Amino acid sequence: MIPLLPATPQSLLQAASELQAGRLVAFPTETVYGLGAKATDALALAKVFEAKRRPFFDPLIIHIADRESMAPLVAPSAAAGARVKLLMDRFWPGPLTLVLPKSDAVPDLATSGLPTVALRMPSHPVALALIRAAGFPIAAPSANPFGRLSPTCAEHVRSAFAEGDGISLILDGGPCEVGVESTILSLAGVTPMLLREGGIPRSEIEALIGPVEIGAASAAASASGPRPLAPGQLEGHYAPRTRLKLLTHTETLPLAGSRLGYLGFRGGPREPHAAVEILSPDGDLRAAAANLFACLHRLDRAGLDLIYAEPVPETGLGVAIMDRLRKAATGSGIE
Ligand code: TXA
Ligand code: MG
Q1: Which ligand is nearest to the CA of 324?
Q2: Ligand index nearest the alpha carbon of residue 231
Q3: SS (HEC) of 217-273
């Protein structure tokens, strides 16, 4: 098993020296656990793609701990934009990733050859302390095999990878508070474009900088050739191994005799199920987001034939939750 160490000053130093030696470390952020490597070390980045079995067309987010670290990574004019400053003032550190024109210091492997780089300043104290201890920006995708459920606690990471996957250690910083990935906003074009719904609702961004375009996977693909601009927007993603079906509000449940699981928003199903998880008995969308992946991991381990998921209201964080549930349904093989 991959060593799992509670985050302490000592384990942070150990993790930092693993990163300095070009090796991989999994660490907590406020959104999900990340699989980190030194951002400017192409060889280390290659290990990330290998460990996740991630296609090379899917670029990585680079994590920084202070604004000064941004300038060397972006094109000279990019950090100076008025919108960039507004967004950083309001949402950093926190679950907002900004896509900006990149500098030559960023290896092509990190950006999959795109002329832009995705940057974020996480708010989790362990993530910030790790970046500072390492002394350089850390490139980190979510610490899950490509396309599978995201990890929101250290144990999720440990159970998804084997010792041979090249991950030196997992820093345990407890469960992730936000529970869905960062919102990705591109400021590389004329109009800001939302590439992924996430921990900061679109409405909060629009209240600050005005309307943003929605970067649909198909629109993005036609703009830049065959690959989507943010390949996390691929249709099948965040998928459990068990088939998952997203219910509509009017549906009742078929398939008697199968082992069925149920993911409810506020309450359970009328009929008995083999396993039931509730996202938030109070109907709180923040709590629901924080619980989403842990509930899905538990259902996925319960030996079920099928998981039914109840829709949540599509406001605030509910938009990101529904995005994950729809992709989980597609990725698990059911529409
Ligand atoms: O909350 C998060 O963002 C987490 C934590 C660990 O920080 N990270 C995360 O990384 O979700 P990952 O690799 O699972 O998703 C990163 C997404 C991918 O969909 C990728 O396509 C997109 O970011 N991305 C990265 N660089 C990009 C770029 N230059 N242009 C457009 N999209 C980019
Ligand atoms: Mg991911």
Answers
A1: 2
A2: 1
A3: HHHHHHHECECCCCHHHCCCCCECCCEEEECCCCCCCCCCCCCEEEEECCCCCCCCC
User: How many Cβ atoms from other residues are within 10 Å of residue 9's Cβ?
Assistant: 9
Q: How confident is the model at residue 232 (pLDDT cuts 50, 70, 90)?
A: low
Question: Do residues 81 and 185 make contact, with C-beta atoms less than 8 angstroms apart?
Answer: no
What are the distances in angstroms from CA 327 to CA 55, 91, 146, 189, 235? 18, 26, 13, 27, 6
Task: Give every CB contact of residue 286 below 8 A, 6+ residues apart in sequence.
Answer: 316, 317
For 150, phi then psi, to 5°, come to -75, 150
Which residues partner with 169 through β-bridges? 25
> What phi-psi label fits residue 22: left (phi over 0), alpha (psi between -120 and 50 degrees) or beta?
left
Domains in the chain, CATH or no CATH each: 4-227 (3.90.870.10), 244-331 (3.40.50.11030)
The H-or-E segment that residue 208 falls in is: helix 202-209
Backbone angles phi and psi of 98, in degrees to 5: -105, 130
With 0.90 as the threshold, say if the pTM is over it. Answer: yes
Compute, in angstroms, the gap from residue 281 CA to the centroid of ligand 1: 31
Please report the sign of the dihedral spanned by the C-alpha atoms of residue 219, residue 222, residue 223, residue 224: positive
CA atoms within a 13 Å half-sphere pointing along the CA-CB vector of 7: 21
Between β-strands 167-172 and 24-27, what pairing exists: parallel, antiparallel or unpaired?
parallel
Q: What's the gap in Å between 193 CA and the centre of ligand 1? A: 14
* Rounded CA separation 68/81 (Å): 15
Segment 256-295, tens digit of pLDDT: 668 999 999 999 998 889 999 999 999 999 999 999 999 9
pLDDT of residue 270: 87
CA distance 155 to 24: 17
Mean pLDDT in residue range 242-268: 83
Centroid of ligand 2 to alpha carbon of 240 (angstroms)? 13
